[in-house]
Design goal:
By secondary structure, the protein is of the alpha/beta class. It contains twelve helices and eight strands. An eight-stranded mixed beta sheet has the order 3-2-4-1-5-6-7-8, sandwiched between helices. Strand 6, helix 11 and strand 7 form a beta-alpha-beta unit. It is elongated, with a radius of gyration of 21 Å.
């Protein structure tokens, strides 16, 4: 593990403390408190996982898988179930290769999400990381309805040293995307990253605006590789899942950026999102620095959650 990854892993372990207290300490007490593996044993684990925001359907899958593994391995001692449970959770979170194809192709990345989840910040961090990989990046400031969103993104563009295409506050977001596509083509950009509106007058307007942006991309930049990332606030638990489902109704979501994972008691939502929606969590954010947004690694996440390096 590189020094950067080690540092991030330490922050992740620290950031997941509340979630760990919520889930793992309870599970440990079940493993040590039961003398045999029976229905009561499974029910206790099930309850703790659901309370940790892993969700009912994901928990059911994990428990069924755990029962199967216990049977196959002829396990009799509850204490021996911990590693099986950890492996079961990891398997629920792996959806094949987490694709980062957009990094190596000419691409357009649409970053969507409601206000307050860390969307604009995520656009800035992602742009900075791609720039550091030697990519030519253009940002589009299409969150034109939130006061200060354009200024915030402009600040990130200065920090990251990438171009930004912006108009006046209140202007048409789709028009900004149109201009940004033209600029990306003329400047031969590798990646165009678009910040989008997080709130219009109502949810219907927001979804219609995203559909309009989709149509413009299809028409003007159909040869670019598409990546649609929805940003979700890890502290909101099951509510984040609801938001993701709403966005899935209006656009093809290809990945999740899960923010504010430092200090949340609801970190189990990362497991629920991946397993229930079938959409990979591609990035995880645990702080304010540019490198505090990292590619998501299921094994690393579950190891940090259970603090397996103790």
């Amino acid at each position: 593990m590189s020094e950067e990854k080690k540092g991030f892993f330490k922050k992740l372990v620290s950031g997941l403390t509340k979630t760990r207290d919520n889930i793992v300490s309870g599970i440990d007490s079940v493993f040590s408190g039961f003398s045999k593996i029976d229905d009561d044993f499974y029910e206790e684990i099930e309850e703790i996982l659901i309370m940790g925001d892993i969700g009912v359907s994901t928990t059911t899958k994990i428990i069924e898988d755990l029962k199967q593994r216990v049977k196959e391995n002829k396990i009799k001692d509850p204490a021996e179930c911990k590693e099986l449970l950890i492996n079961s959770i990891k398997d629920q979170m792996r959806l094949g290769e987490n694709a980062y194809d957009f990094e190596t192709r000419k691409s357009i990345v649409l970053v969507i999400g409601v206000n307050g989840v860390g969307k604009t910040t995520s656009v800035g961090k992602l742009s900075g990381q791609l720039k550091s990989q030697g990519k030519k990046v253009v940002m589009a400031a299409a969150d034109t309805f939130r006061a200060a969103a354009i200024e915030q993104l402009t600040e990130w563009s200065n920090r990251a040293g990438v171009d930004i295409i912006a108009q006046q506050e209140g202007s048409d977001p789709a028009a900004v995307i149109y201009d940004a596509i033209a600029a990306s083509k003329s400047r031969k950009a590798d990646v165009l990253i678009c910040d989008t509106a997080g709130r219009l007058h109502n949810k219907k307007n927001l979804m219609e605006e995203l559909k309009k942006i989709d149509r413009i991309i299809e028409k003007e930049y159909s040869d670019a590789y598409r990546e649609n990332l929805v940003v979700l606030d890890g502290t909101t638990g099951q509510n984040a899942l609801v938001q993701a489902k709403q966005f899935m109704e209006c656009t093809d979501i290809t990945g999740i950026i899960l923010t504010k994972m430092d200090g949340t008691a609801k970190g189990g939502i990362a497991i629920a999102i991946q397993a229930e929606l079938g959409i990979p969590v591609k990035y995880i954010g645990i702080g304010e620095q540019i490198d505090d947004l990292q590619k998501f690694d299921a094994d690393q996440f579950v190891d940090a959650l259970f603090d397996t390096n103790k």
